Amino acid sequence: MAASLRPGERLRRASVDPELRRLDPELLKELESASVDSGLSFALVRRLHQALRDAGSQVYLHELLEGSEVFLPEVRKPPRNPELVARLETLKAKLANEEYKRMTRNVNSQELNRYGTLADLGRQVRSTKVVVITIFNFLVTVGATFACTYLGSQYIFAEMAARVLSAVIVASVVGLAELYVMVRTMEGELGEL
Fold this sequence. Notes:
The protein has helices at residues 9-12, 25-36, 42-55, 61-64, 82-103, 118-152, 160-192; strands at residues 4-6, 40-41, 69-71, 111-113, 116-117. By secondary structure, it is mainly alpha-helical. The chain has 2 domains: 4-71, no CATH class; 118-192. The strands form 2 sheets. The protein has a 3-stranded antiparallel β-sheet with strand order 2-1-3. It has a two-stranded antiparallel ribbon with strand order 4-5. Strand 4 and strand 5 form a beta hairpin.
C-alpha cells in the first residue's frame, strides 16, 4: 500500500509561491522539510488540502500534486515457519494420494481390457462353444438324416431322383424339428437371463 508521495517540482516550490504564502507558516515549514527528506505523508497532503479550501485559494490540490509520484515501499514477505512448510508438504502429499486413489478406485488389475474381466471372457468362450457345438450338431443331424434316408430309400425306389427327393424332404423335416428345439432352448436360456 502507498506510504507517501514524492513531491513534484510545483510542490517543492510551494513555499515560494505567492498564492500559498497566505497558508499557515507551520504547514509551509512542514511541507519544505518533508519534501527535502523522504516524501510527503498522506496526512500532510490532507492537511494541505483542507488549508487550501479554508483559505479559498485559487490553487487546487491536483495542480500542486502534478508531477508527484506515489511512493510504494517494497513489500517484504516474512520468512515462512519451517514447521508450517513441513505440515503443508505432508497435507499436499496426502491430498495428492487421496486424489490418486479416487481416480483409480474403479481400476481392476484382473481386467483383460476395458470390456470386462477374465471371468467374463471365460463365460463368453463357453457360450460361444455351446453355439458352435449346437450348429455342428444340427449340421451332422441333418446330414446323417439325408444319408440314412438316401441309402434306405433304395429298397423302396428304383430311380435316383425319387431317392434324392425323399432324402431332402426327410432331412428338411428333421432340420425344422431341430431348429424348433434349438429356438425353444435358446428362448428358455434368454428367459433366465
